[in-house]
Design a protein that fits this description.
The chain has 714 residues and is an alpha/beta fold. The chain has four domains: 1-53, N-terminal domain of TfIIb, CATH 2.20.25; 62-134 and 352-428, Rossmann fold (3-Layer(aba) Sandwich); 136-329 and 547-566, Dimethylsulfoxide Reductase, domain 2, CATH 3.40.228; 575-708, Barwin-like endoglucanases. 29% of the residues lie in helices and 17% in strands. The chain has 22 helices and 30 strands. A seven-stranded mixed sheet has the order 5-4-19-18-17-6-7, covered by helices on one side. Strands 26-28-27-30-25-29 form a six-stranded mixed sheet. Strands 11-10-9-13 form a four-stranded parallel sheet, with helices on both faces. A hairpin with a 6-residue loop joins strand 15 (346-350) and strand 16. The structure holds ligand MGD (2 copies), iron/sulfur cluster (SF4) and molybdenum atom. Residues 10, 103, 134, 166-170, 172-174, 176, 200-203, 205, 217, 219-220, 222, 295-298, 301, 586-589, 591, 593-595, 700-701 line the site of one ligand MGD.
Length: 714
């Protein structure tokens, strides 16, 4: 039997063809008839079978006891959680209970939809999500420039002729903040039609293989490259905002802001020769269909917010915004912006200890531990985690681990006991992957083409199993005062599929939008019938209509960015180390790995351990370190020991360690791939180093010391 669905493991939403016998998976292949992914998949999709079959995956709620984990019923779990939660809320107030939402929430529509009412019912300001260790700067820039944090410009990769990629490695990550299944094929096609791919990255990554040019850049210095590119364009009068000009505000302020940051100034900061910067700017401006795209390497650094602003600005002043071949705005079948601005949703409250500002209802994850540790009124005493592993994924993970030990109550909704959930008092395991239905509410909104696809349940979960949304719904119900019979019936009837049905009906392709489309418009029933998905066409210009700023104008230089830019231009500058043992730390991803949680699948964890420290051979020589030798990497917050991997692919003065490893705790040993346990980069990253503008964690360019590891005592 064949089943069709979209893979929900990463942002590429590839179509899958799954052969099965009703109970087990026989094979997983790319669905050639999926109009978007056209047969592309990566090795992770095949590992969905392993997750489904994994004997280590939890199937029923567990409670921590002095004798270890004890299985309990759902009713016992909900009752006991409630009994412990109620007095904490009563005595210490609503903010004493915190929530952390991890990455898989955005890949799971039920969890996404039902997390909101849960947070609302808790009424807490201590909400943390993986956004602030990831793409917050993109959303921050979108909110201030366009009026909504989800009005995100996406490179029109299939029609552009020139792409400048900064701090992204789509050949390993399959693309991010840019849903483009088969990224490599799309980049190759760009070059085959005579286009150009330029990559700027402190590591010559897998993506460099398909680029025309790769330039090393000093980590954390991208803001100066972007300022210089804009500077050259204004100096040479190459700016051509075209039709955007009519509805763009503050062009003059942008021009003034980049004055003085010449290619020579940027060369000193970035290491990229001035002549190359000048040529890059001219080629970009001359292309007519160019786009600049910057991802993790740019958003998770001290100037993340400025970088994402300047990328938008570069695309705007060259007219490559909202036009074919530039950065465009998808029109998904369910529009999450809801037509309401998010402009006011910033800085409404601040974190208790460090005073970092809220954005879109959440505080930076980097303050989570201190909010649990620092005594006083308003301390976090209870935590719910949903689909996350912040001990491995947020800066200074060891400190967070210590803080979790001080909580009065911790509840985790997760399918595994991991480095974080092992500190929970209760783990509530949902159905996952092949056992759930899905519609991609988030990534259709970031996609390089408008498409829609509904993924039905493949294997019906057995009795006593609950989906994420059912767990959230039950937790919410118990927090909410008794409602009228009508209100509780209405709530009872709410399911993700029913909400989707309504969203599609009211959405831009829905029957409701245009009565003329009564027989053809998008409905859930019609979508379900098209098992491979529906193509809704290439991206179309949407501005100024889609803008959600009060005056319906695009702001190319909002004051918050100008103020922050002023600070960094007149401030003392970044520490440039002179010590030969000191290096700038960057991260990395591997195609056969998925953040912290798929390291229990044999198929992905084949071969040598990948959790190594990449060091340039010239640096290794100075350090007297040879390939494979154990080195100690240390920072203000911690120390880890890993094998060195010598490679010319890494820029001198820079070292790279992947994140998501460090599965070394008792009871957490990987069953199938011990060589891949590794150590956590976030035992080195400093929680005090954040992007001051957005509060996002600044993982990149933190300074670490390296030395040969002291020999282990016998
Ligand atoms: N130094 C450094 N740190 C980083 C990064 C980096 O590049 N460098 N990357 C950052 C980024 S981009 C991200 S997104 C974060 C990710 O950080 P997190 O979201 O905190 O962690 P994940 O590793 O994605 O863990 C996901 C958890 O969800 C569980 N899970 C999987 N499927 C389901 C499901 O269907 N339901 C439920 N309830 N649980 C499920 C898994 O078992 C796992 O425990 O890490 C960030 N941390
Ligand atoms: N196989 C696989 N795919 C994934 C994931 C995974 O864990 N495994 N995670 C998913 C998630 S949650 C996300 S958010 C995306 C991320 O998707 P990407 O952003 O494409 O992934 P990264 O590999 O983190 O790429 C960041 C690049 O930035 C570079 N870099 C680091 N610091 C700097 C800097 O200061 N300046 C510049 N210019 N470059 C810098 C790094 O060398 C790296 O090549 O990937 C997703 N896809
Ligand atoms: S690229 Fe992403 S969405 Fe596509 S198969 Fe791989 S993990 Fe799944
Ligand atoms: Mo991410």
């Amino acid at each position: 039997m064949k089943h069709y669905r979209a893979c929900n493991l990463c942002e590429a939403i590839c179509g899958l063809e799954i052969e099965h016998d009703g109970g087990s998976v026989l094979s997983i292949r790319g669905d050639k008839d999926d109009p978007f992914s056209q047969g592309h998949i990566c090795p992770k999709a095949v590992a969905l079978k392993d997750v489904y079959e994994d004997p280590d995956r939890l199937k029923s709620p567990v409670r921590k006891t002095p004798k270890g984990w004890e299985k309990i019923s759902w009713r016992q779990a909900f009752d006991q959680i409630n009994q412990k939660l109620a007095p904490i809320r009563r005595q210490h107030g609503r903010n004493s209970v915190a929530v952390y939402l991890g990455n898989p929430v955005v890949h799971n529509y039920g969890s996404l939809i039902f997390s909101r009412p849960f947070i609302r019912a808790l009424g807490t300001r201590n909400v943390f999500t993986a956004t602030s260790v990831d793409q917050l700067p993109h959303q921050f820039a979108a909110s201030f420039m366009l009026g909504h944090s989800l009005l995100l410009p996406i490179p029109d990769i299939d029609r552009c002729q020139h792409i400048l990629i900064m701090g992204a490695n789509p050949l390993a990550s399959n693309g991010s903040m840019m849903t483009a299944p088969g990224f490599e094929r799309r980049l190759r096609a760009l070059r085959e039609r005579g286009g150009k791919v330029i990559l700027v990255d402190p590591r010559k990554t897998e993506t460099a293989r398909v680029a025309d040019e790769h330039h090393f850049i000093a980590p954390g210095s991208d803001v100066f490259l972007l300022l210089a590119l804009l500077n050259v364009i204004f100096e040479k009068r190459l700016e051509r905002p075209g039709r955007l000009e009519k509805f763009t505000r503050n062009l003059g302020a942008l021009k003034a802001a980049v004055q003085g940051v010449t290619p020579a100034v940027a060369e000193a900061k970035t290491g990229i020769p001035a002549a190359i910067i000048e040529r890059m700017a001219c080629e970009f401006a001359a292309s007519g269909a160019a786009v600049c795209y910057g991802r993790m390497g740019l958003s998770t650094q001290a100037h993340g917010g400025l970088c994402q602003w300047l990328i938008n600005a570069l695309n705007i002043i060259t007219g490559n915004f909202d036009r074919s071949g530039g950065a465009m705005f998808p029109l998904p079948a369910v529009d999450l912006t809801g037509g309401k601005s998010t402009l006011g949703k910033a800085g409404r409250w601040k974190s208790r200890i460090r005073g970092l500002a809220e954005f879109d209802g959440a505080l930076p994850a980097a303050v989570m531990a201190e909010e649990m540790l620092a005594k006083g009124k308003g301390r976090i005493r209870a935590l719910f985690t949903n689909s996350g592993n912040p001990v491995l994924s947020t800066p200074n993970g060891k400190q967070l681990e210590k803080a979790l030990g001080k909580l009065d109550l911790m509840v985790s909704i997760d399918i595994y006991i991991n480095e974080t959930t092992r500190h929970a008092d209760f783990i509530l395991p949902p159905t996952t992957g092949l056992e759930t239905d899905h519609y991609d509410l988030v990534f259709n909104g970031l996609a390089v083409r408008n498409t829609a696809k509904y993924s039905p349940v493949l294997f019906k979960p057995g009795p006593g199993r609950l989906a994420d949304w059912q767990i959230l719904k039950e937790l919410t119900k118990r927090l909410t005062p008794k409602k009228s019979a009508f209100a509780s019936l209405k709530y009872k009837l709410k399911t993700p599929a029913r909400i989707l049905k309504l969203g599609l009906l009211l959405g831009p392709y829905g029957v409701w939008k245009s009565p003329a489309k009564f027989f053809t418009g998008l409905t859930l029933r019609r979508l379900k019938r098209r098992v491979h998905g529906i193509d809704l066409g290439p991206l179309q210009p949407r501005l100024p209509g889609a803008l959600l700023t009060p005056d319906k104008k695009l702001d190319v230089a909002p004051p918050v960015f100008l103020a922050r830019l002023g600070e960094i231009m007149t401030g003392p500058g970044d520490k440039v180390s002179a010590d030969i043992n000191e290096f700038a730390l960057i991260g990395r991803r591997h195609v056969r790995s998925n953040n912290s949680w798929m390291h229990n699948t044999q198929r992905l964890m084949k071969g040598k351990g990948r959790c190594t420290v990449m060091v340039n051979p010239a640096d290794a020589k100075n350090l007297r370190v040879s390939d494979g030798q154990s080195v100690e990497v240390s920072s203000r917050v911690g120390k880890i020991v890993l094998p060195a991997e010598l490679t010319d692919d890494i820029m001198p003065g820079v070292v790279s360690i992947p994140h998501g490893y460090g599965h070394t705790g008792k009871g957490l040993e990987l069953r199938v791939a011990k060589a891949h346990a590794g150590q956590s980069i976030n035992d080195l990253t400093d929680d005090q180093i954040v992007d001051k503008l957005t509060g996002n964690a600044a993982f990149s360019a933190q300074i670490v010391k390296i030395r040969p590891a002291p020999k282990a005592r016998k």
